[in-house]
Amino acid sequence: MRAVGVAEDRNPWLTAAAWRSLFRDRPVIPLLALLGLLVILFELGPSNVSSAWAGGVFRAAVPLAILAGCQTLAMLTGGIDLSVGAIASASGFVVATLVGTTGLPAAIVIVLVAAGVAGLVNGIGVGVFKVHPLIMTLGMSLVVLGLANVWQVQRVQTGAGVPPAFRTLGSDVFLTVIPYSLIVFVPVALLILLGLRRTGFGRLLYAIGDNPIAARLSGARSWQVILVLYVISAVLAGIAGFLIAGLTNVASVTLADSYVLPSVAAAVIGGTSIMGGRGGFGGTIVGALILTVITSLLSALGYPEAVRQILFGAIIVAVAAAYTRVTAES
Amino acid sequence: MTVTQTTDLLLEASGIAKTYGAVVALKSASLAVRPGEVHALMGANGAGKSTLVKILTGAVRPDSGTISVRGKPRVAHSPADARRGGIVSVYQEPALIPDLDVRSNLRLTETPLPNFRHWLDELGINGLDLGRLVREVPLATQRVIDLARALAIEPDVLMLDEMTAALPANLTERVLEVIGRQRGGDRSVIFISHRMIEIAAVCDRATVLREGETVGVVDVTPGSEERIVELMLGDIVQSMPGASRTAQDRNGAEPRLVVRDLTARTKLQGVSFELHPGEVLGVVALEGQGQDELFDILAGSDRPSGGEVRVDGKPVSFRHPADAIRAGLVYVAADRAEALLPQRSVRENIALPFVTRVRRWGPINLGREGKAVKGAIETLQIDTRAAREVRRLSGGNQQKVTIARWVASGIRTMLCFDPTRGIDIRTKNQIYVLLRDLAAEGAAVLIYTSELKEIQLVCDRVIVIFGGRVVGELDAANADEPALLRAAYNLKSDALMPEEIAAEVVAEAAAAAHPETDQ
Description:
Low-confidence stretches of chain A: 1-13
Number of domains of chain B: 3
Distance between the termini of chain A: 24 Å
CATH topology of chain A: ABC transporter involved in vitamin B12 uptake, BtuC
Strand content of chain A: under 5%
CATH architecture of the largest domain in chain B: 3-Layer(aba) Sandwich
Shape of chain B: globular
CATH architecture of chain A: Orthogonal Bundle
Number of helices of chain B: 19
Mean pLDDT of chain B: 84
Strand order of the largest sheet of chain B: 6-7-8-3-9-10
CATH class of chain A: Mainly Alpha
Strand content of chain B: 15-25%
Largest sheet of chain B: 6 strands, mixed
Number of domains of chain A: 1
Shape of chain A: globular
Order of helices and strands of chain A: HHHHHHHEEHHHHHHH
Structural class of chain A: mainly alpha
Strand order of the largest sheet of chain A: 1-2
CATH topology of the largest domain in chain B: Rossmann fold
Helix content of chain A: over 70%
Largest interface: A-B, 42 and 52 residues
Oligomer: heterodimer
CATH class of the largest domain in chain B: Alpha Beta
CATH superfamily of the largest domain in chain B: P-loop containing nucleotide triphosphate hydrolases
Low-confidence stretches of chain B: 1-6, 236-244, 493-502, 515-519
C-alpha cells in the first residue's frame, strides 16, 4: 500500500532507502533465496527432481505455511504461539477418533470449537492477565497434550483412523503438481493476507506490536485484539492439524510437534520481526517453501535428519541477523 | 579556513554531511568552538542539530566532513571513543542505570569521586547517599547527577543537549550558574536549548543551523536573540495570531468540560475549572505540581481518587483512554515516543484511531480513509518525504502526526500536554495557528505548556496549578511571563520585588515545597 503523498523527487530506485524499504516491505530476499535454491536443485540435484517432486513439496509446505501464519499473526503483536503444535496434533487425532461416531462434519466443528477454546484461554492469559506469550502458549501446549492423552485412554477401544477425506485433502495431488490442500490453503491465505492489509483488526495487530502504549492512547483495547488473535491462531492450527493427519495418514497426539520451530523459522525467514510491528504473510509463505525445499533436497541427497536440524538453526540465526542490519535505523 | 586558524580552536567540525535514505539531515554543517567559551548550537528540529550532536559524540558516522579536536583530526566511532577523546555529553534523559546504585553508576564511567562530590555541591545537591538505587532518586536529581558526573571527568568539550528542558526552574538556575563559571578556562561547553533566555544568560557565541547547513555564527549580546531567530527562521516568518483576544461571549453556552474538586492521591488536591467550546485554556505549573496526573485522568490513563469530571454536562468516569476518546476528549501526549508507531507509515499512524473500536475491525474503506488522512496532512503541512516510516521524520513532523491523528477524525475537545516541547519554531507557530483555528471552529482545547510565552500566543485564559491546587486564573491579556512565573511559584502578583530577589525567593520556595529535589 502506498503511503499518501510520498514525494520521491529523484529516481526512487536509486536511493538506498528505496532498496531498504523494498526488502523490508516485500518478501524479496526470501523469494530470491528460494529461486537460488531451485537453481541449485536443478543444476546439482538428483534426477528425481520432477513435477511429482514439486507436487510433494507444495503438499508438505501447505500445513507448515498455515502454522507459520499463526506465528506471523502472533509475532506481529510481539507475541508467539508455541501451542500450535499440540493443538494441531490433538485436532488431527481427535477428529480421527470421533469421525466413526459423529460423522466428519460434526467432528470437524467439535474439534475446531475445542481448538478455539484453547486459543481463548491463551488469549485471556496473554491479553488479560499479561502472562508472557512464550510461557502462556508453552503451558497451553502441555495442557493440550495432557488432555489429548486422557482422550486417548478414554477412546482406546474405538480405535482411530484418519478420515479418507483428510487423506485426499492432505496427500493427493491433481495435475501432478497441484495438491488438494490448496482448496483449504488458498482461502485461508487470502483471508490472512487481506486481513492484515485491509482490515482494522490487521492494522491493530501491527499497532500493538509496534507500540502498545500508542495503541492504547489511540483507544485500542489490546486485550480484545490479543484474545481474538490467539483464537484465530488456534483455529488455524486445528485446520493445519487436519492436513498434517491427512498428509502422514497417522493420528497421533504428538504428530505436529516437529512443526513448531520450523513454523517460527518460516515467519522469521519471511521477514516478520519477532519484536512485532513489521512483516506479513506473503514472506511467510515463501519462508515455508524455502524450508520445505531444503528438507526435500537434503533427504534426496541422503543427508541425515541431524544435518537438516543444524542447517535450519543456522539459517534462522543468519536470517535474523541479516534482517536486523537491513532494517536498522541508520 | 587556514591551518593557523584551526589550531586556535578547541573543536572544529566542517563540511559535515549526513543523509538517511532520501532525507538529508545535514548538507554542510560546520562548528568551531574556541577554548573557554560556552557555545550555543541553535536550530529548528529539522535543521539537523540532533544529527550533528550524534556525529560529534560518535553515535552516528558522517557521510563526509572533518572533525578535529585541538587541531588534530579525529573520528569518534562510538560514544565511548568520543569520551576518551574529551567530548562528553549530557542529555535531557539521564544516562544512568536505574537498577544500580549511584556509586556503581559512577564506577562504570570511572568517575573520580571527590570531583563528583565537588560538582554535586556546586549544583546544589547536598548529602546525596551514593548507596541509593538510581531509580529511587527523584528524576530531577538524577539529571543533576548525570551532569556532575560529566563535569567530574573534566572533559575538553562538554555537550549539554536540552539538558535543562525538563529541570525545575531552581535547578536550571544552578546549572546555568555552574556552566557560566566554565567560561574563560581551557575547556568549552556546547549548549543546546530552545530557551533563548538561557542562551542569553550563559553563551558567548551561537552557531545557527538551518536545513542541514550552518547559516551563521552570532556573538551573543543583548539583542542578538532577534538575529538568531531570524537566522533560524530563514525567509519564512509566519505571522503569529494576535496576542490580545477579547474574552469569548459564552452566555448560556454549556461548558464542554467541567472539573470539580478533582483529587488524585497526594498529587491533586481539589482542582476545579471549566473549559468552554471555542476556548483555549492554558495550564501553567512548575514541574511536578500535579499537571501530569490531571491530564492522565482526563485522558483516561489514570483514575482520580475523588472529585467529578463532567463532559457536555454528563458525569464521566474513564477506565481506559478509549472511554475518554468516546466522550470526545482526545489527548496529545508530551512524549512522541508514547504516541507513535515508529515502524508504520504516516497514514497508518494517522488512521489508527479509526480502527480501534471492535465494530471497525472489519474491511477498511481505503478511499474514505485516504481522504481523511490527506486532509489532516494538508491541514498540518506534514512533510511526507519519509512517510513510510514515522521514525524517519523529524521531531516536529512527528509531533504533527500525533495531532493529525485527531484532526482527521474531528476534534471536540483536545488535551495537549506540552505539545511544542523540543520542536522548532516554525512547527511551533504552525501548531499555535492550528489550535486557534480549532477553537474558532468551536473545539475546546486544554493545553499545558512549559513555555510561558506560549500562553499569550494561543490561550484565552490560563489556570495556574501549584502543589495540586489551582492557585490562580488569569485572562490571556494579563498573563505575561512575569505574572505567570509569580503565579506558578504561588507568589502574590502584587509583590513588588526586584527580579533577582524574586528569583531567589522563588527558588527557595520551590526547594521548600520539594525537599526531595534538594537533599
